[in-house]
Write a structure and sequence with these properties.
218 residues; Rossmann fold; 5-stranded parallel sheet; two-stranded antiparallel sheet
Length: 218
């Protein structure tokens, strides 16, 4: 299957996409990871993207589409994939459709994870990440065993630059203005499934898999 996961920052798209990826046996294509790797390597695209990411703004379409198209052309995506973090705008969605059409493919389903803005701020402001293994922690719901230290690597955890409260609220504003039109776009295609971000990770995963099962049957 070829799926897209939508939702505001902090909705848990990455976590759920990883779990669905394992269940379906298709790769999770996270544009966030692609971008952060480009920034870490200080590539030309990475340096350009960093200025937008640090401000909480969307990375320009030409940069994102180039990175995504390259990734989807890799061998492990031939039988399907889960796009996590892309598309984020209507032009990106139509461009993605064109890219897939050239390969005689299409998006089979879109999962929208709904979550309240105040909950997003609470989640992300308490998030910490390991700079080595990229493991994520939440100081309230999933704290490290040793305060401030990664369970796996033993290195100090950090707060990502885009997880400050001011940046989070700007990201939410950008999301509401730029990304929500995608909901109407995919709803009109009849491939959108809404999933409330309530009841914990396992509950959300169960609901998503029920929706995906229905997409397969459709």
């Amino acid at each position: 299957m070829r799926l897209v996961f939508l939702g505001p920052p902090g909705a848990g798209k990455g976590t759920q996409a990883a779990m669905v990826s394992e269940r379906l046996g298709v790769p999770q294509v996270s544009t966030g990871d692609i971008l952060r790797e480009a920034v870490r390597r200080k590539t030309e695209l990475g340096n350009k993207a960093k200025t937008y990411m640090d401000a909480g703004d969307l990375v320009p379409d030409d940069i994102m589409l180039s990175l995504v198209e390259e990734r989807l052309a890799e061998a492990d995506c031939r039988k399907g994939f889960i796009l996590d973090g892309f598309p984020r705008t209507l032009p990106q969605a139509t461009a993605l459709d064109e890219v897939l059409a050239r390969a005689k493919q299409r998006i089979d389903g879109v999962v929208l994870i709904d979550v309240d803005d105040n909950e997003v701020v609470a989640r992300l402001s308490r998030r910490r990440v390991c700079p080595k293994c990229k493991g994520l922690y939440n100081l309230d719901s999933e704290p490290p065993k040793v305060e401030g230290t990664c369970d796996k690597c033993g290195v100090p955890l950090i707060t990502r630059s885009d997880d400050s409260e001011g940046t989070i609220r700007n990201r939410l504003k950008v999301y509401r203005n730029e990304t929500l039109p995608l909901v109407e776009y995919y709803q009109a295609k009849g491939i959108l499934a809404r999933v409330p971000s309530e009841g914990g990770i396992s509950k959300v995963f169960s609901v998503i898999m029920d929706k995906v099962s229905g997409m397969r049957q459709g």
